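Hello,

I think I submitted the zinc ion job twice by accident. Can you confirm which output corresponds to this input? Input:
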Amino acid sequence: MPDDVAETPTDELAVVHLKAPCPKCGGAVVVGDRAYESECGWRVWRNILTHDISQAEMEEILRDGESRVIDDFESPKSGKEFSARLKLAASAAADAEADEDAPKRTLELVFVDRPVQSVGSCPKCKSNVVLRAGNYFCEQNTRKGADGEAVTPKCDFVLWGEVSGKSLPEGAVKDLLAGKQTKMLKGFKSRSSGKAFDAALKLTPAGKIDFVFQEKTKKKA
Ligand SMILES: [Zn+2]
Ligand SMILES: [Zn+2]
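Support: Only one job matched these inputs. Its output is below.
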């Protein structure tokens, strides 16, 4: 080990304090290896569902009670990205006097729909297609009117965000909505056999997904 490293004991490294107090004890919150933590035992993991909570975000949560919308959470089960705010759990402060051994959730996820942004136009009715909860719906394919009242969907088009075990990349979705065949996509999994396979996708005239398999590689001439 080089001398200059050995000469710096780790406990002399600067401890980084956040510019916002602990919600439980009002004391300092420091940046630990894996968590933001306070000496009272309050703690938040720095990485939540693949998102690294930045110091600025943590300070915002401590100061305002919740973060801005964070767009790169990833569900461990489906691998799908989703958007949410991180919010201080209401119990975080109340827990101060509760049993120390009781499991505590210090943060809660507040799910938010991603900002409505058209991904393309509906192959059936030409309305905008928007991402809702991981799937691509025609804007007219909704059971909820502007005031939240129930309505009959005017169009039934939806492109599921996951096809045979694979999340569709947005580029493929755009190709499909533009009436184009996607490039070859890897990592589908057959529902019946469980076998992995590669395929390109295209939409049928009825708006359903169709697999296009690669032609057998031609022998060298
Ligand atoms: Zn504390
Ligand atoms: Zn439509």
